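Priority: medium. Attachment 1 of 2:
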């Protein structure tokens, strides 16, 4: 999994990210936190591709609060661009996987901002998140356990007990 953090952010944004209109850099920068979080909640709750398009367009039309950092705002714009340019859920995933490390960090900052600022709307998702989340986590994590590790586990622990 090349970009686990972005993948988690995209999962929050709900499966397929596609929107109508231009890029995210023309979205307003003076939304109230309440309006932004309400729009984000609609996006995060959408499971149908077409409904996600509509919800993401609403988020873009709402824009971001003025207290969002420049990097987090750029992360919002990156996700909006993915949403705008993608033709399908698969296409959006591919575009997210192709992000540079710098863009991944910005998207992570956007997701962290949203989780922190919208925790009441999102059901307390980020109530335990530290305020200084790391942005330099490795993006290439192993997906399989090496078989030699399993040989060091006592066999009686690998067998089901009755």
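Attachment 2 of 2:
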């Amino acid at each position: 999994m090349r970009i686990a953090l972005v993948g988690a952010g995209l999962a929050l944004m709900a499966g397929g990210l596609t929107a109508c209109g231009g890029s995210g850099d023309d979205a307003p920068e003076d939304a109230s936190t309440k309006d932004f979080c309400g729009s984000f909640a609609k996006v995060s709750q959408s499971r149908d591709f077409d409904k996600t398009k509509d919800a993401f367009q609403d988020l873009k039309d709402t824009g971001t609060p003025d207290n969002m950092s420049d990097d987090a705002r750029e992360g919002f714009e990156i996700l909006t661009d993915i949403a705008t340019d993608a033709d399908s859920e698969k296409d959006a995933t591919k575009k997210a996987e192709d992000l540079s490390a710098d863009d991944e960090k910005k998207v992570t900052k956007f997701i962290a901002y949203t989780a922190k600022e919208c925790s009441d709307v999102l059901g307390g998702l980020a109530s335990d998140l530290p305020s200084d989340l790391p942005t330099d986590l490795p993006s290439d994590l192993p997906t399989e356990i090496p078989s030699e590790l399993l040989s060091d586990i006592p066999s009686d622990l690998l067998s089901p007990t009755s």
